[in-house]
Structures are given as structure tokens and as C-alpha cells.
Amino acid sequence: MTLINGKTKLTGIIGDPIDHTLSPVIQNAAFKDLGINWLYVPLLVKASQLEEAIAGIKALNFKGINVTMPHKETVIPYLDEVSSYASLAGAVNTINNENGKLIGYNSDGQGFLRSLEEASFSAENKKVFLFGSGGAARSLAVILALSGAASISVANRNKDKAEHLVSLLQSRFDNCTAEAIGLMEDYPSKIKESDLIINSTPVGWDTNESLLKSTDIRQGQLVADLVYVPEQTALLTEAKKAKAKILPGKQMLLYQGAASFEIWTTMHPSIKAMREALDKALTK
Fold first, then answer.
1. Is-catalytic flag, 63?
2. Most exposed residue of 18, 91, 157, 160, measured as fewest CB within 10 angstroms of its CB?
């Protein structure tokens, strides 16, 4: 166990809820592997306390923080600066404390692209169907559009939120068509036409719920679920029944975490050490 002392550099993650997160597992494994005196802790932060929490990060001299639901979009006004990509996506998942200056970044898109590369999938000229329109969805939609996706269909229970994300895509990307779909609408044809299906909602977290049945999915598609508990979600089970390819949520968790690690430490973490720790935690 790492000795915690007055020289320990603090990092962590804020969100609500927070008890489910496995980010501490992978980050602390990476710190241990490199033998550096850093610590990563989960911090429950209610929406009403977000401004105070961000001020506390600076006051307590945290070196860096990850941001998860529901704060990825609402945290932006409390930061000193935001990277160009995070600003475009309208969402921050990583904060770096640079000598008292809090700078917001977004590693979700980079992490998802690396997981796609590992699955031998290129977004160029592909049709994407995206469930959700929150902070993670915005990051993925933007990175996929930047990567040359031909179209992105955004489905959300609140169609107005989906339309807001679609408006962003339409205003910035001329070569990527985008449309909003309400979850109560009939969209099976759009699903079947898609090359990549992504669930960026919490549906399926530690439950047997799935947004789709195997009959909605076709062979040859790639189905990605950002939910990583359980590792084999109900959606991924349905995808396997349809003989589609699957991309578990742990892949994006791993790679976005590695990108955040690099922002904070300027060091390259061991993906192997992080993956082994994550796999061990998921089997418990």
C-alpha cells in the first residue's frame, strides 16, 4: 500500500452517485506501477454544491479531478479555462490544476476512439446511432464527427436535449448529417441502417435492462455500451445473440482514464497495469 504523507499528490473524481465508480481502481494501480506518491479518491458532490466543490479543489491543492454525471456540462462556468475540444463538446471530464489555475479537458472522446481502434473500427463514412445526449454523448458525437462519420442519429427520452446536440453537430460539421429522435418514436430502421450503435445512458447499470432486443440488431454492426457494471450488459448480450460485434464499456473507461492520467502527471501510465486492476475489480 502506498504511504500517504505530506508529499502525497491528490487526485479524484466528483459525481453523484459516485459509489459505483471504478476509476480509483485504475488510477491508483497506475500510480503504484510507476512508483509515484499520488492518490485518487472518489468524492460525492451534489449539484447544489458543485461551485463550492470546485473552489475546494483549488483550496486543497488537488492536482487533478475527473468529472462524471451529472456535472460534465455544468462544471464549465466554474473553471478558469477550457480546452478547445472540451469547449466544442460542451463537456469536461478532466480538470487539471496548473499552479492554481483550473483547466478543463475532455478525454472521453479520445478514450472512445482508442477503444474503437482496438476493435478495428473506423468511424469514417459510417452511420452512427447514439442513445443519450448528456456530457459523454456530446463528447462522442463530436469526436465521431471529427473522425468523418457520415451521419449521427441521437435518440433521447427528452427529444429537446437530443435536438440541442444535433444543432451543435449541424452548425459545426457540414459533412456529417445529424438528426434527433425521441425514444418513444419508431426508429428500428435507423438502428438497422447504422454501422455503430452506442449506449451512453445509464440504462443497464447493474440491471438486466436493455434499450434494444436482438431482433433490433443485425450481424456486422458494432454495439458499444459505456456502462461497465456488469461487464457483459444486457445490451451486449442482445448484440451477441444477433451476431453483432461488441465493445464493452470498460474499454473507454480504461483509455479515457489513461488520457486523464497523462494530463495530470505528464507521464505515460501502464495500460497493462490499469487493465489488470480493472479486470480484477469487475470479477468481484
1. no
2. 160
